[in-house]
Amino acid sequence: MAQVVFNFQGETNHYELILAYKDCKHNHAVPFGFVLLDGCPEFISGGRRHEDDEIGDALICATCNCHRNFHRREVTFVPIRQPREPDNNVIYVTLDPSLRPHEQQH
Ligand SMILES: [Zn+2]
Fold this sequence. Notes:
One of its GO terms (cellular component) is nucleus. One of its GO terms (molecular function) is zinc ion binding. The chain is mainly β. The protein has one domain. Helix content is 0%, strand content 41%. The strands form two sheets. The protein has a four-stranded mixed β-sheet, with no helix packed on it. A two-stranded antiparallel sheet has the order 3-4. The radius of gyration is 20 Å and the shape is elongated. The site of zinc ion has 8 residues, from loops.
C-alpha cells in the first residue's frame, strides 16, 4: 500500500493509504435495460477472465469473476507518525495554503 505525505509550508503529515474494493456494481443486465447486480460483497483477487483459464488473475474477482474496476473503491487515510521503510511507494502532495482549515491555525 502507498503512503501519502501531505506537505503544508514545510510541515509534513504522513498517512497510510488503504484501498479497499467493496461491493460489485457490475450491472449484468445492461442489454436488457434493467439493473441486475451479482451481489458480491467484496473483491477477492484471483478470479478467471475466461472459464478455461487455468490460473486466476489478480484483477478479477474470485467470487463474481468481474474486473476489479466494477467494485466500489473505498479510500481510507490512516495517520502514521513515522514514514514506513522502504520508502519507495510514496505520493507527495503539497497543499495550497488557502486550503488550510482555520481551526488548525495557532
Ligand atoms: Zn461482480
